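thought: user wants a sequence for this fold. calling inverse folding tool.
action: design(structure=
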């Protein structure tokens, strides 16, 4: 039993006792703090500082837990332990692995690995290809790399439309709660070709040329891809005509890592137009690093700050923060992308780790007055659960009879982040040296303690 703790229950905070059944992994009871005598219910009684809070376990819809042929960067085991340390109890793992997760066979092998090694709940994405777009049946979570070429085929509007039709047919059979397509939106035709960029020392180069990444991967590439995806969603009448199934809001299209104020603007406009009709639903996420750093941060971070889409301008950070505050961006996700420090320095792969610092960085924004604690739960737990169709199982909320996935934090506790404390195999964080608030004290997944300090 967790005694007398301020707990997030259906959108509000109340002081209660939480009785967890570690055998079944369920929250057996939630009692008033005046009813402290329920001793038979639990052997272990935990008590935390008065200002500590119990939140539903965080749900990260965008992580790269590597493994397979990239075990040196991260494994399902190390990634899930890092997640638990960050208060995350459910993570959705991206398919652009080595080898990529593009068919049922490698998907099943990954699922086996996950059930053996993960200490939290990990769900794999399947990667959309031209070959599998017609055979996605019975699969719920699909990643689209818009405009990229895999094998012989480009993932263009035609392929995506086929995938939408397959999903709508699947949804019409009523056996699936939802199908979620998460889309990487950068139009490759507007990016400078990698082969034209030859840099000897990336770290020095980016520290002295912090604006270059925005020249090579310009804002207009994000804007163009988002526009094309939204056009497809608004073309649902054509899709309906061709597959004889009406568009459904159970088909969800989710824009990954929104990074520009221009992209945000188009997303918000589309949402506004869409609210007037029942159609394919549209969602978007922002990463903690795009809420925290801008391109000037590269003067300090150098190659460690190289990420796709790149860190943008200060005005983009301001707009994204404001939209989050106003409830206009429904989801925060990390895009946790671990690479070793040596690899970053040598070949400059894009991506940065984030799963251990995401919740503390959001709590720090709360301490700065930008977000209410309730909003943090909404964007990093409740809304992601709905987006991925797992909210009926008790994820994204704390409730009697629901699964005991929860994290306890003290939002006022300060923490100086250090690379040495990072559990992820990569062993570093762009937040090294920063003061953050609210490092998790303990994390439960299905009633079991998966992290404690
Ligand atoms: Zn990613």
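)
observation: tool returned 453 residues.
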């Amino acid at each position: 039993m967790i005694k007398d703790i301020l707990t997030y229950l259906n959108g509000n905070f109340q002081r209660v006792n939480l009785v967890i059944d570690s055998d079944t992994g369920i929250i057996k009871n939630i009692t008033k703090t005046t009813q402290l005598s329920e001793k038979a219910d639990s052997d272990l009684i935990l008590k935390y500082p008065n200002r500590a809070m119990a939140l539903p376990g965080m749900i990260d819809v965008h992580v790269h837990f590597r493994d397979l042929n990239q075990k040196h960067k991260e494994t399902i085991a190390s990634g899930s332990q890092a997640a638990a340390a960050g208060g995350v109890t459910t993570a959705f793992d991206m398919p652009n692995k080595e080898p990529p997760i593009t068919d049922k066979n490698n998907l099943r092998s990954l699922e086996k690995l996950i059930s053996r090694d993960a200490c939290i709940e990990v769900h794999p994405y399947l990667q959309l290809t031209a070959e599998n777009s017609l055979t996605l049946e019975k699969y719920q979570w699909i990643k689209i790399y818009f405009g990229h070429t895999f094998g012989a085929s480009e993932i263009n509007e035609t392929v995506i439309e086929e995938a939408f039709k397959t999903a709508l047919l699947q949804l019409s059979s009523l056996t699936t709660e939802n199908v979620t397509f998460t889309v990487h939106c950068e139009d490759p035709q507007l990016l400078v070709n990698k082969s034209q960029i030859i840099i000897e020392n990336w770290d020095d180069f980016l520290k002295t040329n912090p604006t270059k990444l925005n020249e090579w991967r310009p804002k207009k590439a994000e804007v163009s891809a988002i526009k094309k995806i939204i056009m497809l969603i608004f073309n649902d009448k054509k899709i309906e005509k061709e597959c004889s199934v009406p568009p459904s809001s159970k088909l969800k299209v989710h824009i990954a890592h929104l990074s520009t104020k221009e992209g945000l603007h188009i997303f918000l406009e589309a949402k506004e137009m869409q609210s007037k009709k029942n159609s394919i639903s549209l969602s978007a996420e922002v990463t903690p690093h795009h809420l925290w750093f801008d391109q000037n941060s590269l003067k300090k971070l150098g190659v460690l700050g190289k990420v796709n889409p790149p860190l943008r301008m200060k005005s983009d950070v301001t707009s994204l923060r404001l939209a989050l505050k106003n409830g206009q961006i429904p989801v925060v996700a990390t895009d946790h992308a671990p690479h070793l420090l040596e690899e970053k320095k040598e070949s400059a792969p894009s991506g940065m780790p984030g799963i251990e610092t995401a919740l503390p960085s959001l709590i720090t924004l709360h301490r700065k007055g930008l977000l209410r604690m309730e909003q943090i739960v909404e964007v990093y737990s409740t809304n992601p659960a709905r987006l991925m169709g797992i909210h009926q199982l008790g994820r994204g909320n704390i409730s009697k009879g629901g699964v005991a996935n929860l994290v306890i934090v003290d939002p006022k506790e300060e923490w100086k982040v250090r690379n040495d404390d990072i559990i992820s195999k990569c062993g570093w964080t762009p937040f090294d040296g920063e003061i953050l608030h609210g490092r998790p004290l303990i994390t439960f997944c299905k009633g079991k303690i998966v992290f404690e300090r």
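thought: summarizing for user.
answer: Here is the designed sequence. The domain at 58-390 is CATH 3.20.20.140 (TIM Barrel).
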